Amino acid sequence: MPEGKGFTMKNGEGASSPGQGMPPVDFSTFILSLYSSALVQLGEMEDPATGAKGKNMDLAKQTIDMIIMLEKKTRGNLDNDEVNLMTSLLHEVKLAFVRAKG
């Protein structure tokens, strides 16, 4: 698949077609998505699907572990902004985990 192109659905529309109100698919958006999911799993944010807050510490730990794995696997391949974002989000989500565990 060419860089910057989303897949095409049967009806000819791309999954990330402009004008659908979705952010572009890039590394920062992906990491922010994982971070947000972890905050929902830690009960720090409402679940967008239900509007309720709830904790799932096992799932939150797995999500944090995925972010850590991505940080290790992408080391040396990110630009400065991506490195700073990754470092900051990892720090914040680890603190949130400790607070939720408390």
Summarize the structure.
Helix content is 54%, strand content 0%. With 102 residues, the protein is mostly helical. It has one domain (27-101).
Describe what you observe in this structure.
It is a single chain. The chain is mainly α. The chain has one domain. The chain is built from 3 helices and no strands. The protein has helices at 27-41, 57-74, 80-101. The protein is globular, with a radius of gyration of 16 Å. The model has no long low-confidence stretch (mean pLDDT 87).
Approximate shape:
globular
The biggest beta sheet is recorded as: none
Number of helices: 3
How do the SSEs run, as a string of H and E?
HHH
| Helix proportion | 40-55%
Structural class: mainly alpha
CA(first)-CA(last) distance: 45 Å
Number of domains: 1
Strand content: under 5%
SSE blueprint and pairings:
Blueprint lengths: L26 H15 L15 H18 L5 H22 L1
Helix pairs in contact: 1-2, 1-3, 2-3
